[in-house]
Write a structure and sequence with these properties.
The chain contains six helices and seven strands; from the N terminus they run H-E-E-H-E-H-H-H-E-E-E-E-H. By secondary structure, the chain is α+β, with helices and mostly antiparallel strands. A hairpin with a 3-residue loop joins strand 5 and strand 6.
């Protein structure tokens, strides 16, 4: 749980150091006027294959409704140290997403890089994190990409 709260803090903290916004499927970018690379939804699976092959672990932070995620995050300790203006901008931006939008950020918490994939549609909020750092709840990528691919497709097809 700690790792997915951290990545979300990084996603909406525009002043965070060490993050690289890599790409999004949203033609408007992740944030208004952002300069993120725009890719097609068809290209996402190729990107995920690269991350799956590069990193040893992934974290399944899926299964939230937008409102459920907002409530969970706002009751966390991470929220207490959050810049509220950035949180409100992030929350507003996420709330306004109605079509499937997938975005990617690379970040470094000081012990190696990780890749965060944010998957948002009209009602749902999902998060996948690839990392070489094993924490509680991480899933090994050694189980192979075909199994992960089925999991990913089940998320985006709902």
């Amino acid at each position: 749980m700690k790792i997915h709260l951290t990545i979300l803090f990084i996603f909406f903290s525009l002043n965070s150091f060490g993050q690289q916004f890599l790409w999004t499927t949203n033609k408007n970018g992740l944030f208004p006027n952002s300069e993120m690379k725009i890719i097609s939804k068809n290209e996402v699976l190729d990107k995920l294959k690269i991350y799956h092959d590069t990193y040893d672990w992934y974290y399944d932070g899926t299964g939230f409704t937008k409102e459920g995620f907002f409530k969970m995050f706002e009751s966390s300790n991470t929220y207490k140290s959050t810049e509220l203006t950035n949180w409100e901008l992030f929350k507003k931006g996420i709330s306004e997403i109605n079509d499937l939008t997938i975005s990617c950020i690379k970040f470094n918490e000081g012990n190696g890089s990780s890749i965060g994939i944010l998957i948002v549609n009209k009602d749902n909020f999902d998060l996948l994190i690839f990392s070489n750092n094993s924490e509680e709840g991480m899933i090994s990528t050694l189980y192979g990409f075909p199994k992960f691919e089925k999991f990913y497709k089940s998320i985006i097809e709902n």
